[in-house]
Design a protein that fits this description.
The protein is an alpha/beta fold. The protein contains twelve helices and twelve strands. Bound molecules: nicotinamide-adenine-dinucleotide (NAD).
Amino acid sequence: MVLKVTMLPGDGIGPEVTTEAARVLEAVCERFGHELDLKHKKIGGVAINEFNDPLPVDTLCSCLDSNAVLLGAVGDPSFDNHPVNFRPEAGLLRLRRELGAFANLRPALLFPALAHSSPLQPRVVAGTDMIIVRELLGGLYFGEPRGADETAGRQSVINTMRYSEPEVERIARIAFDLARKRRSKVTSVDKANVLECSQLWREVVARVAADYTDVKLEHQYVDACAMALVARPASFDVIVTENLFGDILSDEAGAIVGSLGLLASASIGGPVGLYEPVHGSAPDIAGRGIANPLGAILSVALMLRHTFQLEREAASVEKAVSETLDAGYLTVDIAPENTRPVSTVEMCDQVIERLE
Ligand code: NAD
């Protein structure tokens, strides 16, 4: 298979972690007999410096002409006083919109070797392996009308939560299809006791579930789900929810399984998938060669699985990461005190050595 990928290293530690993730992708292609067509383009602060645009046309065209995009991170404190449209983050927001990805997938998997970095007790967090499917293009973040209004000298503001049946149906199908390939359970999260939006959400999800009789569906209110995530995280398989609830719950789930440096994400549903670690550009450690590359490497596993349907290859990357951690190779963010952390490059070398 030919894998056509655009790589956007971005700012800060972005280039350090994506260089390593690309090495893993190259090694997978070599071992499994695929051809990698990889283009490097600029986004974020580095693109503003060179092209005066956080998402240059050439970058966007390359992304739209690829099967998948691998992004590092954007963000640089030197742009903090620039107008919003000329900040690195504006490039990423525009890219997400242009790619039309409506489903954000955030796995939260506890690697046994990292049980010590979870804020929860080992017996509570053991066995946690869930994926949160967040609706990404609707709800409160995009609903109209929105904005401020002033009447008789008093300001009021409005945001609108709006969902249509097709928007709920398409994200529900992504969740049920995913559950079929995992442990066949979907938890749909809403606030149907208060919000009409959530009542429609629940109705449509239940209707879609009728096409997936092999998948168990449960409904949970968002407040109950927030509690259950810390009380019994291992009970979840696939969680599907709307934009705002998903934004909050996916960060909570990420914190439960440990370091930010390990978390991967996929944004799918449009013609081109976007894969990126959850962390930012980490200017405090950039250029020192100590960043954890696993979030970016695990994003490559998601790309292999969700864009290219290469399950064996994706599982091989995940297994190599797990074995590397089991063997005690830990970067500075996850290494216990009094141990020698490995560098970004060493960590990746160890993962590549363990690939099938
Ligand atoms: P951050 O994720 O960059 O860093 C938070 C903390 O986690 C820092 O102490 C950092 O050193 C550490 N960290 C992050 N990733 C790590 C890794 N891979 N290995 C080891 N340690 C790691 O968040 P921040 O400091 O709030 O933001 C810095 C910049 O990144 C800002 O400009 C922000 O806008 C941007 N940002 C970008 C994205 C993105 O590109 N998707 C996401 C979040 C923040």
